[in-house]
Amino acid sequence: MSLLIVLKNGEGQEIASCEAAHSAQMAIERAYLPGDCFEVSGADHLMVQMDQCLTQGEIYTPSGCFTYRIPFGSERTAYPPFAFEGERHIIRVREMEKEERMAERAISSNPHDLRGNTDFYPHATANVETRGEADFAARNVIDGLSVNHSHGSWPYGSWGIGTKQDAALTIDFGRPVRASRVRVLLRADFPHDSWWESCDLVFSDGSKEHMHLEKTDTFQDIPVDKTISWIRMENLRKADDPSPFPSLRQLEVIGRDIL
Question: Which residues pair with 202 in a beta bridge?
């Protein structure tokens, strides 16, 4: 089955399309308009680059097709400058090889994740995002970036909890994966930031791991050996620090596909 990329406008009309076997590349010579989206079909495990300014990343789509809404307005602050802007764009999509899927990697990473409902994974959601701003959205913790000495727009996006006491964040993989390690990278814009001394990691298999955290700008990790379809970070315990702003830069799951 070949890969098909279709650009549609807000009324659902087809603007352009491209079809190729296993790997497809599409050039668009048109400024994006609100409501524009891409529909991609042909495989469930894909390596994609939906804009030349974005990092290439893998996605999984259960149905073998997905819709990618072009971000507009304040949503674009979570993406690199000039992403989705101008009148020339390149989109690249290819089917992943089985060897790639079976290799250990940051299986939680998805630089293309969108806020709101999506039909592709990994996908991050949370019960709070500071002031509802894209700069502090859950999707930032799986964008694959580890720049954590500041806060705000790209590349400093993070997950902010807005002082919510029962804040929780979930990464959904969309299918069972084998996880071997979980890595946590706090935002480290000290002294503006505080930090969490511990958290609980809850897994779809019903298990839970308690994780101690330190005030550091480097990754902290914990080994796991589980087949899971999602992970949730909860019970965040803030350090005794004057700053009210503990935040998360990355929640990274190392693992592999099992099918």
Answer: 208, 232
HSE-CB at 158 with a 13 A cutoff on CA atoms is: 25
Give the pLDDT confidence of 156-191 residue by residue, as tens digits: 999 999 999 999 999 999 999 999 999 999 999 999
- Which of these, 87, 74, 81, lies nearest to 33 by C-alpha position? 87
Neighbouring residues of 67: CB distance < 8 A, sequence distance ≥ 6: 37, 38, 39, 40, 118, 119
CA–CA gap between residue 165 and residue 182 (Å, rounded): 23
Residue 254 near residue 146, CB atoms below 8 Å: no
pTM for this predicted structure: 0.97
CA distance linking residue 70 with residue 91, whole number of Å = 12
Dump pLDDT digits (tens) for 217-250. 999 999 999 999 999 999 999 999 999 999 999 9
Cβ–Cβ under 8 Å, residues 36 and 71: no
Burial zone of 191 (CB within 10 Å; 0-12 exposed, 13-18 middle, 19+ buried) = exposed
Length of the chain, in residues: 259
Mean pLDDT computed over 121-136: 97
